[in-house]
Amino acid sequence: MRPKSKDNSIKIFALASFLHDMGSDIVFSVWPVFVTQVLGANMSILGLIDGVGDALVSISQAVSGYLSDRWGKRKIFVWVGYLFGGVARIGYALSPSWQWLIPFRMLDRSGKIRGSPRDAIVSDLSTNADRGRNFGLLRAMDNLGAVFGILISLFFLKYLGYTKLFLFAAIPSFIAVVMLILFTKEAGQEKRIFKGLSFASFDRNLKTYMFLSALFSLGSFSYSFLIVASQRSGIHIESVIGLYLLFTLVASIFSYPFGKLSDSIGRKKILYLSFLCWGLTTLLFIIWNTYLGLILAFILYGLHRAALEPVQKTMVAEFSEKTVVASTLGAFQMVIGLCALPASILAGILWDTISPQAPFYLSLFLTAIAGILLTRVRETKKSSSP
């Protein structure tokens, strides 16, 4: 039986994640509208800003994962990452033009240094019987925090305006920082020999899985495109926020069940479900861009994220060697994150130069290829008691 203190540690990280994501989605539920309509950027610029941010996520998680394994330290990366996010939101609030958003977006996304070390802690505290459930709990709390953040944005934007709303959004992350510093301790790490990380040392399953995930990421452009595509249908800003709320609520409700289900029926089946939901989402934006179609699309998008995120990290953790879990998770995030940079930039260019449907066609094609490659991945169950 697992010690109660380990369950409490996971719950503390889940609560901190809830607070941080609440602040994040106060901002990001209105981010595309803020960037394009308030600060005057076009879709290519929006794609560039989002793409640079996503690329920095990959680099920051790779670096922090490597250093976390090398130094045997995890916690400091987590609370510093939350601190970066809080400071960045203050920067967003005070930015007079879209150019000023770039350094603060970079700082915000660099805050993802928390990701790989935190995920490594959760993996270390888990077994194969509950790892999916624990990662699902983190994603559920992420998304639940996002639900609260969107509701705050929906009800208070017209009263506070963007500047005051974004300043308020920094507060939950600062609370999370204080909570982690005061109420968590550095977990005792067993003595391990860290020999570094090499892609050549990955087994065939992990290499294939990373390649198909990278390919999928090339078509998985920023959610900003879904928001702007919805607004092109003529619906009001409150309705756009409402659609984003619907997506987040669905993701929040289903992340934990999907993660837990993957413990019993296997990771690949849940990943196939994720790819299917995303493919249907892109189809709806192509062929049924009505209000009813948008509602269904955002429900499917929520199911896609709920199925994808817990299982992605769980599979990587189970494919990796015990001594380099954080490094491997960071390397995985680096690969898919670096693909996200050209994905959003390319989507913006296709949108501006060909048609708003063009990015969705490309994404649908790449999702199908990734699904075919997934048939070549063999799930493994490694003994991994905490």
UniProtKB/TrEMBL annotation:
<feature type="transmembrane region" description="Helical">
    <location>
        <begin position="76"/>
        <end position="94"/>
    </location>
</feature>
<dbReference type="Pfam" id="PF07690">
    <property type="entry name" value="MFS_1"/>
</dbReference>
<keyword id="KW-0472">Membrane</keyword>
<feature type="transmembrane region" description="Helical">
    <location>
        <begin position="209"/>
        <end position="229"/>
    </location>
</feature>
<feature type="transmembrane region" description="Helical">
    <location>
        <begin position="357"/>
        <end position="375"/>
    </location>
</feature>
<keyword id="KW-0812">Transmembrane</keyword>
<dbReference type="InterPro" id="IPR036259">
    <property type="entry name" value="MFS_trans_sf"/>
</dbReference>
<feature type="transmembrane region" description="Helical">
    <location>
        <begin position="12"/>
        <end position="31"/>
    </location>
</feature>
<dbReference type="InterPro" id="IPR011701">
    <property type="entry name" value="MFS"/>
</dbReference>
<keyword id="KW-1133">Transmembrane helix</keyword>
<feature type="transmembrane region" description="Helical">
    <location>
        <begin position="270"/>
        <end position="303"/>
    </location>
</feature>
<feature type="transmembrane region" description="Helical">
    <location>
        <begin position="165"/>
        <end position="184"/>
    </location>
</feature>
<feature type="transmembrane region" description="Helical">
    <location>
        <begin position="324"/>
        <end position="351"/>
    </location>
</feature>
<feature type="domain" description="Major facilitator superfamily (MFS) profile">
    <location>
        <begin position="9"/>
        <end position="382"/>
    </location>
</feature>
<feature type="transmembrane region" description="Helical">
    <location>
        <begin position="43"/>
        <end position="64"/>
    </location>
</feature>
<dbReference type="GO" id="GO:0022857">
    <property type="term" value="F:transmembrane transporter activity"/>
</dbReference>
<feature type="transmembrane region" description="Helical">
    <location>
        <begin position="241"/>
        <end position="258"/>
    </location>
</feature>
<dbReference type="InterPro" id="IPR020846">
    <property type="entry name" value="MFS_dom"/>
</dbReference>
<feature type="transmembrane region" description="Helical">
    <location>
        <begin position="143"/>
        <end position="160"/>
    </location>
</feature>
<protein>
    <recommendedName>
        <fullName>Major facilitator superfamily (MFS) profile domain-containing protein</fullName>
    </recommendedName>
</protein>
